[in-house]
Task: inverse folding
């Protein structure tokens, strides 16, 4: 991993961009309580066609600092990464909370975003009040519950990534997860949908228990820009781990169609 020095300390990121600068650039952002390892299954499938920049957000994974109070508080990290690679325009995408950050950034900086990739996310991410209580009072039970609700598939590869998800949640701890979920609960882009001018690819799990499929399709119907929806059957919330093959093919096709 590489790192940038910021006012909050070191910002860690992974990238294959040094040898593939001619390829389109995509900044991928992880979800609540996670880190850049959420992209471990997708990275090898995307790296030949796309220049990837994959950070640990401030206060997550190996990055120093504290989690942002609001999702747009992560814009600074995105700007620093784009400056590091001297990017005027790029693609942005994310999983769950990362998808919400990507949508907010696309609405605020439409002149810089070539396309937005939204995985297991929507125009709002409400959190059940009981979850906040569980994070504070019984974090081990919260981790167990999160794993139960996040995954749908039971393949051998998925079982491995279930363990990695547990590791990420435990490493970041209850304070980070609480702040992330609070920021997600306060997030909404419903009033700014018309400000998203770049094309949007949405990838949704048919059986997602955390971001219900009906919510995703409702958001999709409200988008006024060029858009595409990939529905993955028999798939839950952890699409990057549960369906990397299906996801990667669609992401590459989306990016290439806009970069030609």
Result:
């Amino acid at each position: 991993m590489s790192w940038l020095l910021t006012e909050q300390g070191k910002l860690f990121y992974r990238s294959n961009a040094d040898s593939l600068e001619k390829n389109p650039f995509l900044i991928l952002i992880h979800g609540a309580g996670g880190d850049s390892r959420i992209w471990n299954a997708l990275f090898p499938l995307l790296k030949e066609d796309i220049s990837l920049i994959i950070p640990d957000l401030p206060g997550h994974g190996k990055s120093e600092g504290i989690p942002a109070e609001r999702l747009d508080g992560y814009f600074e990290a995105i700007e620093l990464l784009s400056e590091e690679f001297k990017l005027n325009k790029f693609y942005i995408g994310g999983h769950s909370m990362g998808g919400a950050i990507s949508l907010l950034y696309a609405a605020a900086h439409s002149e810089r975003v070539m396309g937005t990739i939204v995985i297991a996310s929507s125009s709002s991410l409400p959190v059940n009040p009981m979850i906040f209580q569980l994070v504070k009072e019984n974090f081990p039970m919260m981790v167990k519950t999160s794993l139960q609700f996040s995954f749908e598939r039971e393949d051998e590869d998925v079982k491995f990534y279930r363990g990695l998800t547990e590791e990420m949640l435990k490493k970041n701890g209850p304070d980070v997860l609480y702040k992330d979920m609070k920021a997600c609960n306060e997030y909404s882009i419903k009033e700014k949908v018309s400000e998203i001018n770049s094309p949007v690819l949405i990838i949704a799990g048919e059986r997602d228990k955390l971001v219900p499929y009906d919510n995703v399709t409702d958001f999709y119907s409200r988008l006024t820009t060029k858009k595409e929806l990939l529905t993955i059957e028999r798939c839950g919330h952890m699409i990057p781990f549960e369906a990397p093959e299906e996801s990667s093919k669609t992401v590459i096709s989306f990016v290439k169609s806009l970069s030609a």
Q: What stands out?
A: Residues 89 and 112 are 4 Å apart (CA to CA).
